[in-house]
Design brief:
The protein is α+β, with helices and mostly antiparallel strands and 392 residues long. It has a domain of 204 residues: 2-Layer Sandwich (Ribosomal Protein S5, domain 2). It is built from 11 helices and 13 strands. The protein starts with a helix and ends with a strand.
Length: 392
């Protein structure tokens, strides 16, 4: 659906539930797909995501009182969810409104208290539970519209940090910075090569001549807060503490593959050792992948994507049968340069680079194998690399 259609549908939702659209402003923030560099962002490593042209839309208007009224076009059956500026309960919200409320709460924590409430209607075209960062998109969107409506002075990079803080401390999801950063700092036709330890970044052109970027959804919903995601972070921190007894590092992202192999035995628990191996090797894979892309070596980039999936499957154990069937089937299709799970894992999507003339065959073979192995259908999206948040 085009931007104009999504905007109109969002305004229509606002009109239906709140009576009119006088004084309403509209906004957009993108979802993201990570090309390579998974579970490295909280380990001081590098990531390589890009913003997408799909994302989350909002229609918002300030109120004269302290009420907050939320409505989602995507979850219309839930109706209008009411709250106010005096009722924030971190770690105990169980509705989608915990994401915008977490951002409002974080603004207040940083001295940016809202003088009045607002009515907010949300409408997104990121498939729910797909791992394309609908939550980060909603957080960045909320921060962006609060900045505009209430006149706060913040950079987009600060909006990303606010989104991450709110997800960590209001929603209890111990995520790194990648998702929010990709949404807040997106640039059309470019991926973001980000050093998560320093937040230094550069834009790298994504030139896929004769290729398409295909996202394939397992249609298995993933919910990271209640999953093993926080366990992986704890295991990584345990590995880091062990390595710090024999080498001077602040993060796993500072080690070369050879350094890790040299010191790995200090990590007693073999499971924890595998977690650390993934974090180190994946970070260095990401460095090599960006070099390959800059050199126009897409086949090499694809090989590194495949290696990334194997590591996420075997060492970090955040894949699942559904993701493995998608990736491993894609590897067998001529014209597929690379395919891997993207996002936190345990469900969600794969991302594949596919030659244009092989896309139809890729979809046919992967869909048939997935239905045969899993028992229900996967979904395909040809995605485009887009800009960051905007007022429409």
């Amino acid at each position: 659906m085009a931007v104009s259609e999504m905007k109109e549908k969002t305004l229509q939702g606002f009109r239906e539930v709140f009576g009119d659209t006088e004084g309403v402003s509209c906004y957009f923030a993108p979802g993201r797909v990570n090309l390579i560099g998974e579970h490295t962002d909280y380990n001081g490593g590098h990531v390589f995501p890009c913003a997408l042209t799909i994302g989350t839309y909002a229609a918002a208007r300030k109120r004269a009182d302290r009420k907050l009224r939320f409505y989602s076009v995507n979850l219309a059956s839930q109706g209008v969810i009411e709250s106010d500026l005096d009722s924030f309960v971190p770690l105990h919200e169980d509705s989608w409104t915990a994401y915008p409320k977490g951002v409002i709460w974080t603004f207040a924590e940083r001295g940016m208290t809202l003088p009045c409430g607002l009515d907010l209607v949300i409408n997104g075209n990121i498939p729910n539970g797909s791992g394309l960062s609908s939550s980060a998109s909603l957080e960045v969107l909320t921060g962006f519209l609060l900045r505009d409506l209430y006149g706060f002075t913040l950079t987009n990079q600060e909006l990303a940090l606010i989104g991450q803080y709110s997800e960590n401390h209001y929603n209890g999801m111990n995520c790194g910075i990648m998702d929010q950063f990709a949404s807040a700092m997106g640039k059309r036709d470019h991926a973001i090569f980000l050093d998560t330890a320093t937040l230094r970044f550069e834009y790298a052109p994504v030139v896929l001549q004769g290729m398409e970027l295909i996202v394939t959804n397992t249609n298995k919903k993933h919910k990271l807060v209640g999953s093993a995601y926080n366990d992986r972070r704890r295991e990584s921190e345990e590995a880091l503490r062990a390595l710090q007894t024999v080498c001077r590092i602040r993060t796993l992202g500072e080690l070369s593959d050879a350094d890790f192999d040299h010191y790995a035995a200090v990590i007693q628990d073999p499971v924890v050792r595998r977690r650390a191996k993934h974090a180190v090797y994946e970070n260095n894979r990401t460095l090599r992948a960006v070099e390959a892309l800059k050199a126009g070596e897409l086949a090499r980039f694809g090989e590194l994507m495949n290696q990334s999936h194997i590591s996420l499957r075997d060492d970090y154990e955040v894949s699942c049968r559904e993701l493995d069937v998608l990736a491993e089937t894609a590897w067998t299709v001529p014209g597929v340069l690379g395919s891997r799970m993207t996002g936190g894992g345990f469900g969600g999507c794969t991302v594949s680079i596919v030659q244009e003339d092989a896309v139809a065959r890729f979809r046919e073979i992967v869909a048939e194998k997935y239905r045969q192995e899993i028992g229900y259908d996967c979904s395909f999206y040809a995605v485009s690399v887009g800009d960051g948040p905007a007022k429409l």
